């Protein structure tokens, strides 16, 4: 601790240069934060998926439906605790750009399945009592300024016409990162107003298995149960389902890795160069310190700690800024929950420190190796 | 009592025997020190003179444990430097040697206080003890009121006085000064020499000083000339002895 003054004094030596280096780290970490948040937005389903939930879809593809009668048969299987279903509606609010998912849900069982979504009881009762009612996520409501009782017109694309819904409930996620951008309405309303072919069919089932039940075994049991029927099923854990769904958005993960990698590599070169320069400039000073009895290892640690300090300060500033702007991004990107998880904050900061360490390593070693007699003779 | 004849004197702080230093420059070998002997007693103020390139700095570097001899031995207060590992030598230096350079060599990013405190960071002293000792050292060189000044805010003479405070703050066994007045005007040089003389006379410091300036050498108890790789006593000195 008593050496902190020396470290700080050295960091302050060239204020502009230090600020620029801190700035580079800040910008890089800001970018890292944004990429991580966008990555989260694409994979949010994966991140927050329930470990005890299975998704049952038609074996042919997700857009092929399943019979409504499967619900009872699913409930009869050992290990299955609860079953609910949903249909994809695919409507548009006002404008094509306003994308958000709408699900026609089995309102009797849906809320119990997704306990992470919090809905006041009286609101849920209102929804249950209104065939044209809908439940919207808090982020969605905020984006479009919807309030309880508002009438929302949605233009159907799969199911033609303008469909009007009454906002009866607003749900909130109980964990950070929970998707607050969904729109649920009642399946019986879809059957009532929709075309003939939709009757008796659901898009997919969500199944919850009991505590301590082998989910993989239940998955297999479900698919075997419906094998050789006109509607064969494919059952996956919700997490895997969400991941394969996210993959359809393109390989965003690889893109983010490449961008992030390039940014950090550039940062490494730039700061490495700066650190090397700063050590070369004070060859004499380092030699003087050694003359006074400071060890070679001290010289190494001194240079390293300066580098790491700069990286840490810049990194912290950048990642904090990223964290602060993500809520605004959620507003700007309809259909996505842009959220920067704490884990990514930690990883980002760790990466910054690592780059700081790596950038300082070569200069620090040369500071360590510096021989006093040579260094002092050079001046 | 200073001796250069290799005979063992009593009360010796620094004892140098058959010191050899060669440098290799390409295929050419430079034999700078050639079997040099020296004995310096405690509290002695010795000046070294000699033409440029005669090996004065080389000798000080060896005495201060900054470089290792090609042959021979250096013993300070019973410690044999040539037997020490590099790390041990570094620690020894912190405890026993105070360096004063021609170019002051203060750290520009630290204040006078910070510079003088540096050697104390290597001791076990706590913050308050360090502060007291730094203040004492700076007061001794007459710069108590310049504590918070940075080197660039000081004159050359003041910088050198800070350097002297830094050299004495940890109470080393001896001071090594390489042309301490070489970069100063006459008045400032006089102040520095007064200070060194006082350190030797009043505080009993052992001082080894390289200088080109006869007026500086005059202040010392004894002037030695480095000639062809060995030390010889100055003519007047020899006559006096
Ligand atoms: N690292 C080195 N490699 C090769 N030669 C060296 C090295 N260090 C010193 N020398 C040579 O050793 C000789 C003595 O150098 P030194 O610096 O000790 O002289 P000096 O008496 O201090 O001179 P000055 O009065 O100019 O400071 C010189 O010829 C110098 O070139
Ligand atoms: Mg010299």
What about the largest sheet of chain B? 6 strands, mixed
Number of domains of chain A: 2
- Overall mean pLDDT of chain A stands at 89
Number of DSSP-assigned strands of chain A = 12
Key traits:
heterodimer; A: 379 residues; alpha+beta; 2 domains; ten-stranded mixed sheet; two-stranded antiparallel ribbon; elongated; B: 241 residues; alpha/beta; Rossmann fold; six-stranded mixed sheet; four-stranded antiparallel sheet; 8 helices; 27% strand; globular; disordered C terminus; binds adenosine-5'-triphosphate; binds magnesium ion
Overview of the structural elements:
The complex is a heterodimer of chains A (about 375) and B (about 240). Chain A is of the alpha+beta class. Chain A is about 55% helix and about 15% strand. Chain A folds into 2 domains: about 5-45 and about 250-375, no CATH class; about 60-230, no CATH class. Chain A has helices at about 5-10, 15-50, 70-75, 110-115, 120-130, 140-145, 185-195, 215-225, 240-245, 250-280, 285-290, 295-330, 340-370, 370-379; strands spanning about 55-60, 65, 80-90, 100-105, 115-120, 135, 150-155, 160-175, 185, 200, 205-210, 235. In chain A, helix 10 (about 250-280) packs parallel to helix 13 (about 340-370). Chain B is α/β, with parallel strands linked by helices and about 240 residues long. In chain B, strand 4 (about 70-75) and strand 5 form a beta hairpin. The termini of chain B are close together. Residues about 235-240 of chain B have low confidence and may be disordered.
Write the layout of secondary structure elements.
The complex is a heterodimer of chains A (379) and B (241).
Chain A: H1 4-11, H2 15-48, E1 53-58, E2 66-67, H3 70-76, E3 80-88, E4 102-105, H4 110-113, E5 117-118, H5 121-128, E6 133-137, H6 138-144, E7 151-155, E8 162-173, E9 183-186, H7 187-193, E10 201-202, E11 204-209, H8 215-225, E12 233-237, H9 238-247, H10 252-281, H11 283-291, H12 296-332, H13 342-369, H14 372-378
Parallel strand pairs in A: 4-9, 6-8
Antiparallel strand pairs in A: 1-11, 1-12, 2-10, 3-4, 3-11, 5-8, 6-9, 7-8
Chain B: E1 12-25, E2 28-41, E3 45-49, H1 56-63, E4 71-76, E5 79-80, H2 86-96, E6 97-100, H3 112-121, H4 127-140, H5 156-168, E7 174-178, H6 186-201, E8 206-210, H7 214-219, E9 222-227, E10 230-233, H8 235-240
Parallel strand pairs in B: 3-8, 3-9, 6-7, 7-8
Antiparallel strand pairs in B: 1-2, 1-4, 4-5, 9-10
Bound molecules: adenosine-5'-triphosphate and magnesium ion.
